[in-house]
Design goal:
Layout: H1 3-9, E1 10-14, H2 20-35, H3 49-52, E2 59-65, E3 68-79, E4 82-90
Antiparallel strand pairs: 1-2, 2-3, 3-4
InterPro entries: Acyl_CoA_acyltransferase
């Protein structure tokens, strides 16, 4: 697979409710790989991603390739001049 093919078929979208299960799975895979375990109590934002990010005015995007979520990222507004990048994950 070449880079041109990927770019031509990659969609960057704001998360929607119907993406949440697939996004949670991708993020938990990354957390498990990095830390060796998953503690749900440390990730309350993943219980309702749209409500936690979008409804509060923050940004949460997903990358979709061949109808599958392959990456995520969010920006949380810290103040009028600063945002914090969080939840950056890419499927292996």
């Amino acid at each position: 697979m070449d880079n041109v093919n990927i770019l031509n078929n990659l969609q960057i979208l704001q998360i929607k409710k119907n993406h949440e299960n697939e996004v949670r799975k991708l993020i938990f895979e990354g957390l498990s790989e990095r830390f060796g375990f998953i503690d749900d109590s440390l990730n309350p934002d993943l219980n309702n991603i749209v409500e936690f990010y979008i409804e509060k005015g923050d940004i949460f995007i997903v990358g979709r390739y061949n109808e599958k979520i392959i990456c995520t990222g969010a920006i949380i507004k810290e103040n009028d001049h600063t945002g914090r990048i969080v939840r950056m994950y890419v499927k292996k």
